[in-house]
Amino acid sequence: MKRILGAARWVAVAALIGAMAACSGSDGGAEGDSSMLKAGSLLQPSSLDPVNVTGGHDMTFLRLIYDRLLEVDTKTGQVKEGLATEWGYSDDGKTFSLTLREGVKFSDGTPVDAEAVKANLERNFKLTKLGLVTSVSSVAVVSPTELKLTMGEDSAWLAEQLASNSGYMVSPAAFEESNEDVSGNPIGSGPYVIEKNVAGSQIVFKKNADYWNEDRGFYESIDLKFFKTPVSMNQALQSGQIEVAARTSLTDIDTLKKADGIEVEVDPSLAHYHVQFNMASPKLQDKRVREAFNYALDRDALAKAATGGHGEPTQSMYPPSSEYSSDATQSLYSYDPDKAKQLLADAGFADGIELKCSTYTGSGYETSSPYILEQLDAVGIKVDLEISELTEVMANFYKGGDMAAARKAPDCNFTSWPSQPTPRDTFNAEYGKSIYNVGHAEVVPWEMLAEFEKTLDPDERVKMAQEIQIEAANNPNMANMYTKPKAYAHRTSVEPHEPNLLEFDTDMAALRPAE
Fold first, then answer.
1. Would you say residue 383 has pLDDT above 90?
2. How many helices (H) and strands (E) does the chain have?
3. Which of 61-65, 128-132, 331-335 has the lowest mean pLDDT?
4. Which residues are within 8 A (CB) of 8 and not within 5 positions of it... i.e. 6 or more apart?
């Protein structure tokens, strides 16, 4: 068996980590109870069922409850052990084998064995909304700790996918009893179980006493509260009501780092902000309108306004320092209002065009959206931006992949793309036939994505990733704008966390009480 430890190379990872900015306030304020971590979040889970989640931020909640078959090393980007300790393709690439860690149990006491994993994989390969695996034709149990997956299509990315959403393992008892949705009874083998769940307000996690991984789960419980605005969450942090603030606004860093008893860490990440176009919208069928939208944006100014100078402009799905980006992908749409106006006129909108767009509470556009709307208005693109809760936006804009309904959805959505361990999932989600490519437009030739699916050679992957992004930019279904560093604000009662390019938010199960 060939063991594939992750073919994707992240040449820029070390440089990004080295460039990390860490800011700390004075050592004051009340210390917290080391047995309970009090945390705050601006976003709520779209689901507590791994196959039904639709947001990158859901990783924060899922990782507290569930384990994945494989994980990703946050420093190297390579696939590493999770519930599986060995994995890889056969020499002919026709099968993929997994060897499981022995002795692991779900929190309901049932074993994480090959039968349980088989049931999960068959469910995941059918239902997962983010990171759906389509290359496996069948799953067979070889022994209580071994499985063999038969490949129906060539794919070089299966290990990376099993280290993402398709690799989460749920107790089969949970989905057998809940008609394929486990949100009401989420049972995993992770470090915590849910003790209390008040919809829209609070989730209390209790430590799984039998958890196998000594590197996670350092608090007896985690009390996670949800806040409506960054201001209210910051106030709770400064008053000691919470000790950790997930998704701290980048424009609040300078204020928070001056507060007593608070530390702020700013880490680079692979995440970025963009405006997603509804490719089924009648107003956006002419690509010149979408190109005009891109030329209208002054990305340098937006990056400064939105991130307090901590982020940088990007026209790529990756930051400029990533190997998957290139000079070509970063120079396609310069700030050119005159060209934007001409493109609109050529498309038949010399007098301007009105678009209805959406965003969600806690999206991070609180500071930048007025500047974005002003720049668009200056070239004749008038945007009516509606703000609502994330779950409502997901339903109203993405429509669950319903093509007929998509024609009546908003014209665009102000959102962000999270860190992903593999460009394969990023490209398939944004350019393939997924809910995030609203309208399922062939932005990139399908055969190009299919070829990327088969590519194992690291250098060829980098080359193709750059080519795919250039192809997509020439028929844009989005406007990429600026990168999204990850700000982690916490009281001094909690240890700093290790920089992590991969996760959308802080891995709360890895946080420790300060000594």
1. yes
2. 16, 19
3. 128-132
4. 77, 78, 160, 421, 422, 423, 458, 461
Q: What's 68's DSSP letter?
A: B
Ranges 63-72, 147-156, 271-280, 432-441: which has the least confidence: 432-441
Question: pLDDT per residue over 181-198, tens digit each?
Answer: 899 999 999 999 999 999
The residue with tokens 């994980």 is 71
- CA dist 285 and 296 (Å) reads 18
Structure tokens at 462: 């980098």
Say which residues have a Cβ less than 8 Å from residue 179's Cβ, sequence separation at least 6.
Answer: none
What is the maximal distance between C-alpha atoms in the chain? 69
Q: Which helix (H) or strand (E) holds 488?
A: strand 486-491
Collect all residues with Cβ–Cβ distance below 8 Å to 402 and sequence separation of at least 6.
none
Question: Any idea of the CA torsion for 371, 376, 379, 382, to the nearest 10 degrees?
Answer: -120
Chain centre to alpha carbon of residue 33: 31
Strands (DSSP E) found in 284-391: 353-360, 381-388
Residue 246 class from Cβ within 10 Å (0-12 exposed, 13-18 middle, 19+ buried)?
buried
* Length in residues, the chain: 515
Q: Count other Cβ atoms within 10 Å, centred on residue 154.
A: 14
- Among 209, 228, 371, which residue's Cα sits nearest to residue 305? 371
| Dihedrals phi, psi of 168, to nearest 5 degrees | -70, 135
Q: Which amino acid is at 217?
A: G
**Strand, coil or helix: 222:** strand
pTM for the structure as a whole: 0.76
Residues 324-344: tens digit of each pLDDT:
999 998 999 999 999 999 999
Give me the pLDDT at residue 7, please: 35
